Amino acid sequence: MKIFLLILCVALSATAKATNWGETEVDDPIFKGEKCSVHEPISYGSYIYFWPSKYDQVFWPLTDQYGIWFCEKSGFTAFIGDFSGLTPNEREEIKNYLLKNPPKDASTQTKLNLLENIYSLRQKDNTFNNQLLRVLARWYQSIGDHERANNYRKKALSEIVKNLEGDLDEIQKLEYLYLAVNYYRQLGEIEISEKYISKLILSLDAVKDEGSKDYAMYLKELYPESMYIEAGDSLDPKLPE
User: Fold this and answer.
1) d(CA 56, CA 179)
2) pTM of the model
3) What pLDDT digit, counting tens, does each position of 67-123 carry?
4) Burial of residue 102 (number of CB atoms within 10 Å: 0-12, 13-18, 19+)
5) C-beta neighbour count of 131 within 10 angstroms
6) Are residues 44 and 14 in contact, defined by beta-carbon separation less than 8 angstroms?
7) Nearest-angstrom CA–CA distance, 34 and 27
8) Residue-wise DSSP of 68-101
């Protein structure tokens, strides 16, 4: 979430009206000495935080094809910028997995499968793993596999509810309350969603930490749209014109 706020601060000062990418090379984490051709952002603006993926609280570049880095030779796949920091054990397990399951192509479906399976072999915290589920949900919705997308959301929601019972920092608490509102509403659990709306509003009004105020203002603008989320395939609400 801290990364989100950093990007948000930069994005709010941007005047560009489109996202742009540049091609570069990075080291293949699996095959020593090999390079992987990937892309990095050149320009973007704050509007990325108001694209439909906001309902899952996942954002560009993770929702862009270039936001998933993929090495053609080894098959190693990860989110943009997340190629370093592998432990020797992680590297060995991933290498063995890729040897047994070489990617058949470079399609979106293949990359998503690799992303999920490779991250299952990496030691990531609960916050990252929840975000991964929501990114996968957004991707599968975008390619029309709504059943799979919503199964990821159900898994994410289960973890969100558990985490809300514990001690979260203020920003993550706000984020998870907002997501609970949306996901319960899509499941048709309107009464439960309304309870989380009440909790969200109280929490937004109670924000005192200066570092949380920008995010709280963002959610205050955003959460009224949640009232239009309907049970069904797509999470995205049909807003009144």
Assistant:
1) 7
2) 0.91
3) 999 999 999 999 999 999 999 999 999 999 999 999 999 999 999 999 999 999 999
4) exposed
5) 20
6) yes
7) 6
8) EEE-TTT--EEETT--S---HHHHHHHHHHHHHS
Cα dihedral sign for 122, 75, 108, 54?
Answer: positive
Query: 200: which 2 tokens?
Result: 């969200």
pLDDT tens digits, 46-67? 999 999 999 999 999 999 999 9
- CA–CA dist 225, 236 (Å, integer): 9
CA distances from 61 to 42, 69, 85, 133, 221 (A): 11, 11, 21, 16, 22
Per-residue pLDDT tens over the stretch 172-208? 999 999 999 999 999 999 999 999 999 999 999 999 8
How many whole angstroms separate alpha carbon 103 and alpha carbon 183? 32
Tell me what the mean pLDDT of segment 155-161 comes to.
98
* pLDDT at 17 (0 to 100): 56
